[in-house]
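Here is a typical protein record:
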Amino acid sequence: MEVRHLELLRELSVRGSVTAVAAATFRTPSAVSQQLRTAERELGVALVEPVSRGIRLTAPGQLLADGADDVLRALAELQARLDAGIGRPRGRVAIGTLPSAGEALLPELVRRLRDTEIELDIDDFDLAEADYANRTLDADVVIAHSLTGDVPAGAEALTARVLAREPIDVALPAEHPLAARAVLTPADLIGTSWIGVPVGYPFDSILVAVETVTGCVLPRSIRLRDNRLVESLVAAGQGLALLPRFTTRPRPGMAIRPLTGVPVVRSVVAVARPDRLARLAVRHVVEELAAIGGDLSASSPEPAG
């Protein structure tokens, strides 16, 4: 069996179509189809069959796709033992991260890896919580977050490691009446207007919890992803917002206050496929990220300003 054929079948099982596999692996659909035909010829079984407007794996094809993780994990573990025998982790590690967690964790990670043989390939994306798991198909480690647990929704079948626990604070215009208070409660937020995040993003669950506790709707005048843009709009008096403590700093026109009475601490989590995590270099990166996150969690100050 060719490992590349097993990888292809796993990709097809997860992504669902030749077109999606081709886009993810930077090939043409015809090249992917050609590899499927080659795999069928070499293995002597039909691996796919037509269905509706596309194809699906046959029973033998699904059997091989399901077994691909075990084979790839075994190969990664063998490589890890080889690297351990040499005495050092090495190779390229692809990291995908939500921007705010990446800002807090990655500069120190780069510094720590400067004198090693590990190279980082970093991508950033801001997604709904349930969408981070799919990015582990393309990255060795995905830094995700959740306000409901230590495993982000959709990542239950993956390996997850909590890197940090980060409070989420309320940012408000410096002239807002609530800025005079040291700590805010759900009742304080009745009647306020918000710069929110898209529906399904973890921060939105905090506002939903406040609405549940108070029985009042908190209107979101705008929904944005970029925290720096949110900060600038808060400072301009556009509304209140929720921002992560590790990377939010007071700016002119904006105050930051902690919120109590509802869950406001997010878990920043590294998620990975088991076969990727079997690599020594990937495990080393996750251990370093956990150490950095632990330091951030231990030294997190109360917001000021």
Q: What stands out?
A: The CA atoms of residues 168 and 241 lie 10 Å apart.
